[in-house]
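PROTEIN DATA CARD
Card holder: CinA family protein
Chain length: 163
Origin: Sinomonas terrae
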Amino acid sequence: MLVRAQDVVAAFIARGVTAATAESLTAGLVAATLADVPGASAMLRGGVVSYASEVKAQLLEVSRELLAEAGSVDAEVARQMAQGARKACGADYGVSTTGVAGPDPLDGKPVGTVFVAVAGPERTEVRECHFSGSRAEIRGAARDAALETLFTALAFPETESEL
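Structure generated from the sequence above:
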């Protein structure tokens, strides 16, 4: 399902809730895509581009031990990034992306491995995705997955799931 940024923004505004981003491999694409929608300022609180593990640890409070053991391409890192974005920006929901866009594998993970997480008031959902294509295509697919996960978390808040 391809979710448009307009639909995410409209859904958040209709519910009166806010979002924040924590992005590694997408480097701000999710926040920029949301911000391209007129009226997004009513729901987008801010975001952190955390390419470096040190930034993940300092600004998003991702466990330094976890980063040292698992590396940055990890489901729990994505979970902590989303929770950190929510806290750092004072948002109702936080969405994160971390993964490998290429050209080389990272942290023992093949190119195209992406983790997307959404932290909300009731739960945090993490998705593991595997994309193919160029670096730009993988980053675009990760952005789209983040928008979809964010929209789904808001549309179905009572459903507990971890993919």
